[in-house]
Design brief:
Order of helices and strands: HEEEEEEEEEEEHEEEEE
Mean pLDDT: 86
Helix content: under 10%
Shape: elongated
Strand content: over 45%
Oligomer: single chain
Largest sheet: 8 strands, mixed
Structural class: mainly beta
Distance between the termini: 92 Å
CATH architecture of the largest domain: Sandwich
Low-confidence stretches: none
Amino acid sequence: MEMLNSLISKAPTVKILFENERKKTIMQNLKGDLVEYSTYYDNDTVKGRLLVHLNKNKNFEHFGMKIELIGIIENFKDKKQSTRFIALTRDLEPPGQLNNEITHFDFEFSGVEKQYESYRGSNISVRYFLQSTLTSKYKNIVTEAEFVVLKFKNWNDFQTDNNPLKIEVGVEDALHVSFQLDRSKYHLRDVITGEVLFKVIGLRLNSMEVQITKNETLGAGNQIYTEKEVLARFEIMDGTPFKCK
């Protein structure tokens, strides 16, 4: 009869709530949808509480409750190459019974080195998430909540070794072009400024555009592959320019 009642009634649900978080970050989830994530800096304490709803069950017998903080580098092309670099566990409740309709449990992970920024790429991702487990007689109730980690840098440190960038390309004596940027490091919200100098023009040109690309390199040894994604295109010239003096 006890087993029948457990199958008929709705199982308890667990919700993970974050506290002392920074401004939320919008990022793609693993399905490609844009989602708002709770955000922490790399040296922040990750804390919050779990809410357990019995869903009108009078009581719920369990064999303990825990929460884990997990950091993982996932390789989409080879799951065997995925690596967990953080795996911490906090025991929240010993075996017993839950009798209240809503019960909360506080958790805290302090002093945890979060060495990588969260990243969602084409072939690899860096993810941080909390996973709670309520162990029961019939089926464990597992809940997961992902959050974003940002590596905070002092602005003065960001400016170090941020020298102008200059690249020159050409086709023998037919074309010689110089690309110049005012610096080599940019904030994600910065405006990229620079100039293109045509030093030798022996070809008829129709147009010119500048692309911002993202190159993602994955692998080691002889198994290295790079995927290129064009983030933006800007047309900067229409027709053949005059030679720069």
